[in-house]
Amino acid sequence: MKIEPTLLPGVLILTPARFGDDRGWFSETFNAPRMQAAGIVVDWVQDNHSMSAKVGTVRGLHYQRPPHAQDKLVRCTRGAIFDVAVDFRRGSPTFGKSVGTDLTPENARQLLVPKGFLHGFVTRLPDTEVQYKCSDVYASDCDGAVRWNDPDIGIDWAVADPVLSAKDAAAPFLCDLTSPFVWSAS
Question: Which residues contact 88 (CB under 8 A, 6 or more apart)?
Answer without folding.
Answer: 63, 95, 116, 117, 118, 146, 179, 181
